[in-house]
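Bench notes, afternoon.
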Amino acid sequence: MESPHAPTLIFSVVQSGTTSVAVIDRGVNNNIRPTVRAPRASKAKLVQVGVDLLVALAGLLVAAIVRPGGSDFVIGAAILLVGWAAFMGRFRLYASRFITRRSDEIRRILDSGILATASVAAAAFTFDLEVDRLWLAVAASFGAIGLIGEREVMRRRFATMRAKGELQRQVLLIGDNLESQLLAKMFDEETHLGYDVVDTIDPTRVGNPNELTTRVLQAARDADAGGVVIAATAIEARHSNRLIRDLIEAGIHVELSSTLADIDPSRLTVRPLGRFPVVYVEPVQRHGWRAVAKRTFDFTLASLGVLCLSPVLALLWIAVRRDSEGPVIFKQSRVGKDGEPFDVMKFRTMVINAEEILAELQEDNEGAGPLFKMKDDPRITKVGAFLRKTSLDELPQLFNVIKGEMSLVGPRPALASEMSAWDEDLYGRLRVKPGITGMWQVSGRSETTFEEYTRLDLYYVDNWSLVVDLTILARTIPAVLKSDGAY
């Protein structure tokens, strides 16, 4: 039996180009009975589906050229193609929230391919079809390789379009505190994420949960927003539970921040703890076999680098020697792991009295925080300018790696004088060895602010793994090639 005072909210929400009408009827049990028309698939999603099918089909045809598929090839190819498409949908390969990370996308593509291949094998066994097994393996391999490559191209294409302001999701941001401000700033600066905040609502200014729900739904309708991002620390639990339930019933996508900034999602496990879903944060393993593996990797690669680059090192030695007076190798005391000092080695790129001139140039510092940067630094020699532009001045640091003072990948080796400007958090970067390259070098280089440089260093320390090192090394070469001379 309904309460005579139970409110009935009728609202219209525009989502993905389709108007969805929902009726919320609150009875004594506070049940919600909505009527929502499912939104049409976006144009970008339909394009993705079509391209996936064409690529998978191309893989089947190429496989047929390499290896005949048997007398029932057409039936087998049809089952494989339809099965692959079905399993790709089943594994949420057309829902962006499930494939944010490349590794997740690749795993889902492979899983769908394996199941599609198994479907063909099962059909061949059940109905006695003549489908060549080798063709099936080749077709599945070509299809997987093609889909992975095509998905990477599409991923970059979509990122480029979002960076230009296209394919943006109109969302509401719930919250008006530091966390919500950081979220808004991130969405504004990192347009490739594809979020366009069209309105911000402060839940603390709303008296009760019903009023908050009404206001958010009205704002979503007015702004044609199909999603809501909630800053978890900005809303009371009694408001958030009701709001989330109502928005989901209304067909609006809801995302709740975890309050855990700069922690790799692979370290997070959501599990039930009584009535609460809690997030367990996996600790970073820097010791044991992982430490041995990293040291072995560093020593081996650095040694091979010195061996292979020895002719280049000799030529650079001669060039620096003939260009200006002073030692060829510049040594400077830096802070290493656990605060231990060591001498970092570089090819000298400045005049011999550079440190004395530095004090006179502080007013022209273009860097952020304690980092000194100057576009036309008069202390840099002619050969030094070339070495810096190409990052070849860093090559002697391979010897630091061999000696165990540095790693190939790690935080930038800091000067002791810079530490006076550090906050307490930044001292955490001393838990690992400094590196020749690192996250800040491949994520903006000289344009990186000191705040961002700090965040990236700490992100690396907190989320280190061998895979992260390999990823950064792979990104270093393109970053150097795009260098403006301030690597």
